[in-house]
Write a structure and sequence with these properties.
This protein has six helices and no strands. Helices cover 71% and strands 0% of the residues. Helix 2 (18-33) crosses helix 3. It is mainly α and 123 residues long. It has helices spanning 4-10, 18-33, 38-60, 73-80, 87-98, 102-122. The radius of gyration is 19 Å and the shape is extended.
């Protein structure tokens, strides 16, 4: 829900609501049960929460949002920057907004984090 991100950012201090604590408990238990140390469990939890909240904040903030909201944006940015200075940005612009599958991008990020956690467990 779009209003969830501001609620998280406005909250001060540790969570104390039993419903919120249940969600945290399940996540921590899952990570700890996978074999992570207590320290790695906390780091993994923070990484996952940060990734999800950051991704949602970018969507809600309309940085990514509706592709129609960005109609002509790619062309305007490309026309306003020097491609000799920003060659990669100019090349990537269509892929960042027009042709980007946000669900696939989110899954890629989540899979990358999970792969890193698996590699940590294997070592």
């Amino acid at each position: 829900h779009p209003n969830a991100v501001p609620l998280f950012t406005e909250h001060r201090g540790p969570m104390s609501d039993p419903d919120a604590l249940r969600v945290i408990e399940v996540a921590l238990r899952t990570l700890r049960g996978a074999g992570l140390s207590p320290e790695d469990t906390v780091h993994a939890y923070g990484t996952l929460v940060g990734f999800v909240l950051g991704y949602v904040a970018l969507e809600v903030g309309a940085l990514w949002g509706d592709p129609l909201a960005h109609e002509g944006w790619t062309e305007r940015i490309a026309a306003s920057v020097d491609p000799a200075v920003f060659p990669t940005l100019v090349e990537m612009l269509p892929h960042m907004f027009v042709d980007c599958d946000r669900e696939a991008e989110f899954e890629y990020g989540l899979d990358t984090i999970i792969s890193g956690l698996r590699a940590k467990l294997a070592s």
